[in-house]
């Protein structure tokens, strides 16, 4: 792949295409170093892309996953959160190396290395992941506006406002890349301040937090805790974030003809990623700990009692049910509960934190969509047309869902969207691992034997293949139980397991037999 006078020579088919005007075309100069020893000035010059990348670890989907983790398993899944972040750091390092070494991001290389059908498949899967992520981010922002306005601004209006202010904020890069990075840094500081305030207010026990982080075991965890553990992986490791990071690091001026210069750039990019993901991990642990301390073990009736005692019309107590079922928290109910327990100020602080998380992640999601579409499809449209198309693809489904659902159903969608992220992840992992292991792409910077070994790819694919198979088998069990009243024998594979984790379906068998569902009728989702 050669670049001459802004013209790209495609090695795969020999065609020449003009390089597109896209985001982050500005290059930030890096102070020169003769001996390449550690320099704080050089680290500061490389600081920026990693923090933009880390925002995907702090979007509303992650925040809701954190609070649900604390609500259903207390501190017992903190080790899953830490482990997922470490795996995410490893994958972000690989994607960043692609951008630093080649000067091209993951989707651009995919366009030049893959035939038409595979790259279209990768583009579609990436867009599905971006749509799912955007739905979480936009819904989260709309919920925060709903809370901040005391339920005056409806959700669909919040979605429209989010779209408009996202378009406005996207113009910030016209004022300089470093100013844009400072803006994102301020949003992260807002999240540190707001979620940190909630942590200080609640004062969870440090010993319990440390135990949850260190001990990789989930004692007495039920089905909800198991599903939440899977959801954490989907929430933390975002497929489109690999494309984003590989594009962001291109903004630093690196002489790729000098091996030592590239090695030094890779080192600083990794250090910044460690710092950025360390900050995101602290925030995620804080949110989990707050709700592990406050909500774990509480029933709907107990939460309702707390809010009813305030006798404050600011709090939507009608959103809480009056029964003895475990309290199912989401970002909306969590905000109301914090207000009931610690005052209205705590609710507004929570909403501001969610707004910062949603707004920042919506913007980085937009950048991801741009890079993925421009790279895989090699679009030659003007910039505003590309932005409009990617925003319509991503935001359209969100607006449709918002208009047809209430806040209870919207905020509960995050579990399904996190699962979607898990299912889409292999389609970003495989090209990342393939290209970083390829000497034709990376040259002397191709992965070493430890990473290059096919064993790593097989392990990752096997893990997600297992989840695919388990999910499919679970659906088969549910349909056989609900539609045909078939008992799942213990002698079959996973028989006892499914009788335990699918207890709700088996408790419902007697009712189904007495009141069967006509096969011509649509299957009620509540029975699944």
UniProtKB/TrEMBL annotation:
UniProt topology in membrane: Multi-pass membrane protein
Keyword Transmembrane: yes
UniProt GO molecular function: cadmium ion transmembrane transporter activity; iron ion transmembrane transporter activity; manganese ion transmembrane transporter activity
Broad class of where this protein is predominantly found: membrane
Segments crossing the lipid bilayer: 78-100, 153-172, 179-197, 225-244, 265-287, 336-357, 388-407, 419-443, 455-486
GO CC annotation terms, alphabetical: endosome membrane; plasma membrane
Keywords assigned by UniProt, alphabetized: Membrane, Transmembrane, Transmembrane helix, Transport
Top-rank taxon: Eukaryota
Localization annotation: Membrane
Coiled-coil regions listed: none
Family assignment from sequence similarity: Belongs to the NRAMP family.
Name assigned to this protein: Uncharacterized protein
Organism: Oppiella nova
């Amino acid at each position: 792949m050669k670049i001459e006078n802004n013209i790209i020579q495609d090695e795969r088919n020999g065609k020449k295409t003009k390089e597109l005007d896209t985001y982050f075309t500005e290059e930030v100069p890096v102070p020169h170093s003769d001996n390449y020893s550690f320099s704080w000035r050089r680290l500061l010059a490389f600081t920026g892309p990693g923090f933009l990348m880390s925002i995907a670890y702090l979007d509303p989907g992650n925040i809701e996953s954190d609070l649900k983790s604390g609500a259903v398993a207390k501190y017992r899944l903190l080790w899953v959160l830490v482990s997922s972040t470490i795996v995410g750091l490893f994958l972000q390092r690989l994607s960043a190396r692609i951008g630093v070494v080649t000067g091209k991001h993951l989707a651009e290389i995919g366009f030049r290395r893959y035939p038409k059908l595979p790259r279209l498949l990768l583009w579609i899967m990436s867009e599905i992941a971006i749509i799912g992520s955007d739905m979480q981010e936009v819904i989260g922002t709309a919920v925060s506006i709903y809370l901040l306005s005391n339920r005056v601004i409806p959700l669909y209006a919040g979605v429209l406002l989010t779209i408009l202010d996202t378009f406005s904020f996207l113009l910030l890069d016209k004022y300089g890349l470093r100013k844009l990075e400072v803006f994102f840094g301020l949003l992260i500081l807002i999240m540190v301040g707001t979620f940190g305030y909630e942590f200080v207010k609640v004062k969870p026990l440090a010993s319990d937090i440390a135990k949850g982080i260190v001990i990789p075991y989930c004692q007495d965890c039920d089905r909800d805790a198991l599903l939440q553990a899977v959801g954490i992986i989907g929430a933390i490791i975002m497929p489109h974030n690999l494309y984003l990071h590989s594009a962001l690091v291109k903004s630093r001026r690196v002489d790729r003809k000098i091996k030592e210069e590239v090695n030094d750039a890779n080192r600083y990019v990794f250090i910044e990623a460690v710092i950025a993901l360390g900050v995101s991990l602290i925030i995620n642990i804080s949110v989990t700990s707050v709700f592990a301390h406050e909500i774990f073990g509480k029933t709907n009736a107990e939460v309702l009692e707390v809010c009813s005692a305030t006798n404050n019309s600011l709090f939507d107590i009608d959103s809480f049910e009056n029964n003895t079922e475990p309290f199912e928290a989401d970002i909306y109910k969590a905000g109301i509960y914090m207000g009931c327990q610690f005052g209205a100020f705590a609710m507004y602080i929570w909403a501001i934190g969610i707004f910062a998380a949603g707004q920042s992640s919506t913007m980085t999601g937009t950048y991801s969509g741009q890079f993925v579409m421009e790279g895989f499809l090699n679009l030659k449209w003007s910039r505003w047309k590309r932005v409009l198309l990617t925003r319509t693809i991503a935001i359209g489904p969100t607006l449709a869902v918002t208009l047809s659902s209430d806040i209870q159903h919207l905020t509960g969608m995050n579990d399904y969207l996190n699962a979607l992220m898990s299912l889409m992840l292999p389609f970003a992992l495989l090209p990342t691992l393939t290209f970083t292991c390829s000497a034709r792409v990376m040259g002397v910077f191709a992965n070493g034997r430890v990473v290059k070994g096919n064993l790593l790819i097989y392990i990752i694919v096997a893990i997600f293949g297992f989840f695919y198979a388990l999910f499919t088998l679970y659906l088969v069990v549910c349909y056989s139980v609900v539609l045909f009243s078939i008992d799942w024998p213990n002698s079959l594979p996973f028989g006892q397991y499914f009788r335990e984790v699918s207890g709700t379906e088996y408790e419902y068998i007697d009712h189904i037999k007495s009141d069967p569902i006509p096969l011509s009728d649509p299957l009620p989702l509540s029975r699944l």
